[in-house]
Predict the structure.
Amino acid sequence: MNEQVSLAGVPETMLWTLHNRASEALRDDARLSDPEAVRIYQSIDYDFERSFGRPDGSHAERSRIFDAAVRPWMAAHPGGTVVELGCGLETQFHRCDDGKVRWICVDVPEAIEVRERFLSASDRCRHVARSALDPAWMDEVDSDAPVFVTAQGLLMYFEASQVCSLITTIMDRFDDVELMFDAIPRWFSRKTLRGMNKTRHYQTPPMPWGINRDEIVDTLRRWSPRIASVDFVDFDRFRGVMGFIFPKVFKLPMLARWAPSVVRVRSVGATK
């Protein structure tokens, strides 16, 4: 019997991303192998297409990009700690586990409650039921060892002042830390604030923090002097029309500034 899941607001977006990741993984020509996402997807009694429409490859592509960054970092830092902020039903630990990494999944209590119905915590993959904005989650991390913090589909739901506080606190708290997150441009943020319907039955939550690509480096360096480098990873493997358009957009600065960004930040003390 499938599980019923009742979520609203930002926590409900975990079902949206699951819909796209699992649907991609179910394809014969899948670009993301994610058997745990498929298992969970098929275990939930929820009309995904009614809420989110036909699946697209956006969230699977984002997860692929984050995996491609985390795996070599783990190889270079055996037994290091990955902190996954706003984890929801993301199954990155299960895709990337090397048998050594220590993983900490952080999300609000209602999200962790749903997660634990399908994904059990373990000694190396712990669950912390706190908002990413609550610095108490940092007490669960060994600050003397290298840390990689990820925030997929999260920071845009906060105010700019909250994002600033979170990033500066992470940089100040950990000597050897990398942070990877995605960001939306200002025009898209404004669209969500006016009320953006994904389908007739689902309105996306407001996304207050939007920042154009050409503003990101200066903004982050202004926020924290402990940031040593800021790099971008382009979305380049979308399916369909977006797969044709996006690679060209990122080669044109005047257009790229209005595209979504994946950003990788290294602290002054980060080891490569």
Summary: The longest strand covers residues 177-183. The two ends are 47 Å apart (CA to CA).
